[in-house]
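Methods, example record. To illustrate the input and output format used throughout this study, we show the complete record for glucose-6-phosphate 1-epimerase. The sequence lines were provided to the predictor; the line carrying C-alpha cells was produced by it.
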Amino acid sequence: MSKLFGCFFPLLGRRKRHLSSDSDMDSVEEKNVVLAEREDSLFKVHLLGATLLSWKVDDAEILFVSDKAVFDNKKAIRGGIPFVFPQFGPWSAGPQHGFARTSHWKLEKEPEKLPNGDVQAVFTLCDSDSTRALWDYRFKVTYTITLMDKKLNMEVDVKNTGESEFSFTVLLHTYFNVPDVTKCEVTGLKGITYVDKTRNEETFLEDREVVTVAQLTDRVYQNTPSEHSIRVVAGNRTITMRKHNFPDTVIWNPWKEKAKAMSDFGDDEYLNMICVEAGSVSNPVKLGTNQTFHASQVLELT
Ligand SMILES: O=P(O)(O)OC[C@H]1O[C@@H](O)[C@H](O)[C@@H](O)[C@@H]1O
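The corresponding predicted structure is encoded as:
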C-alpha cells in the first residue's frame, strides 16, 4: 500500500469572511481540512465533525455547502455531510444532532492510495471529558472514507469501549448540490411509512414512485430499501445511494421561511440543495461492552 499524501488544502476564498484575519485563515487551513485525490475526482473533509465538505467528479461538485456556512471550528458546518451521533434530532442531554458534528476528529490514517487505485482516509472520534459530560459512555467511532471511480464510500464503525451498554442513533446528513430542487427526483420510497416532522410527527404512507420537493419537507422514511436513486434532472445527473445497516432515510429541505430564519444559510439556497440522509434513527441501536456496530453508504454518480 503506497502512501499518496496527507494534504491540507486552502478553504475556498468565499469563506474567508467568516474568519477574523488571514492568519486565522492560515492556521485553519493547515490544521483542519484533509484533501484526497485521484485522477478525476477528489474529496475534502473538515476535521470539525469529520464533515465531508466536497466530493468532486470531473470538476462537478456533488455536495452542497452554504455560502453562509460558518467555519469557526465550533459551529456545525452547514452542508456537505455532517456526521450525526449519538443523537439524531433534538436531545435533552446536549445539542441537536449530537456532539459528533461539532467535535474535533482525529485523522487516523492520512489519504493513501490502495493497490486497486482507490484512495482512503480514516477518521476517529473517541469519548473525552467533554463528550462524557453530556453522555457518560466510552466509545470509538471509526469513519473510513474511500474515493473510488465515480463513487464515494463511507464506512461507519461504532465500538462500545466501556463497561456499560448504551443506545444511540446515527446518520450521515448528506446535502446534495442541485441546480433546481423542484426538478430533483428521489426514488425508492414508494410504499414506505414516514414520520412527517412538519405535521406533528404523524405517520403517513408514501404513494409516489418518485418523490419531489416543492415545500418545507422534513420526513423520516422508515425501513427503506438499501438503494435510492437521486436524479438531478437539470444536470441530467443521477446519484445512486446504496446503504447497509442504515434502515432509515430522511428527506429534508427547509424551504423559504425556514431558510430565512437560519443565520448560516442563504435565503434562496433552499433551491439548490436537497438532503437525503441515510441513518439508523427510528429505533436506537443498543451496543453492549466490546460490541461494534457497522453501517455504510456508497454514493455513485452516473
Ligand atoms: O439545523 P440542523 O440542526 O442542522 O438540522 C437541520 C435538519 O436536519 C434534518 O435531518 C432534520 O430532520 C430536521 O428536523 C432539521 O431541521
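Annotations derived from this record:
The longest strand covers residues 273-287.
The longest helix spans residues 22-32.
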